[in-house]
Amino acid sequence: MKITVLDKSTLGEDIDLSPIYALGEVEEFETTAPDEISDRISNSDVVIINKIKLNESNLSKASNLKLICVAATGYDNIDTVYCKKANIALYNVPGYSTDSVAQVTLSMVLSLVTHLKEYESFVNSGEYSKSGIANKLTPVYHELSNLTWGVVGGGGIGTKVAEIADAIGCKVMICRRKNEGKFPVVDIDELCTECDVISLHVPLSDETRNLINAERIAKMKKNAIVVNTARGAVTDEKALANAIKENRIGGLGVDVYSVEPFPENHPYTDILGYDNVVFTPHMAWGSYEARNRCVKIMGENIKSFYGGDTKNRIF
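The structure assignment produced for this chain is given below.
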């Protein structure tokens, strides 16, 4: 069995791929450019990817390919229509990053609600030492227990974030398909109107693309904080950047982008360095523990496929 890993660098230098190497002949590439994909997988039985986009143009010559393992829960970078037609199986890795993403989401919210960047900058700049005053209490911040946290998405990550928000005293409401669970379920428009904190935890689909758009941003409170650790395109990124520039929302935390890395002409470049903005490089999923779980489960997925088990199989 020939296994090809196309973007190993996205898993981190510190991660042991021995669960994969134990299963066959492995060829790994740190990165793969779009025009290199077709040649690199031409003789592969199994392809492992994280962020690489696979479609008919680069899969059509992979005559031996039987299985794609995506090192993620989402698989919007895979042409599923073509894969089904070509009888190529797809397995994902559900649930491996729940704690990691929830932790980063909470970190962003805490930093933005508390104005941590502004206070840290005041000390680091030397202004605190020069002030002669023991403390500084502006910008004003509020206790999370006085705020309403709206969670968009009721899967594993969204549920975990809702539980954390509840544990630290927030009033919690959730936008999800099914009206179930311990928290009030509301539609997206009510959530945008009522909540002080809005965090996004939905997969990218036709239904969720631009879910947070200019119209819904206009409904938000002036102090609302929006955090996106889901997929970049579930928001209108230009509309969010404009809302920050025009002081129409209180803060923005983003770990995911419609184009990654985002280019110099991206709307977010206009708000780089703003005190009320936190941008991170799609790292929320990637704690050491989460990445090791991911590799372990991918190894299990390959064994499951060849053993006839359908666990984690998308099709």
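Interim note for the steering committee: The chain has a mean pLDDT of 97. Residues 98-279 form a domain with the Rossmann fold fold (CATH 3.40.50.720).
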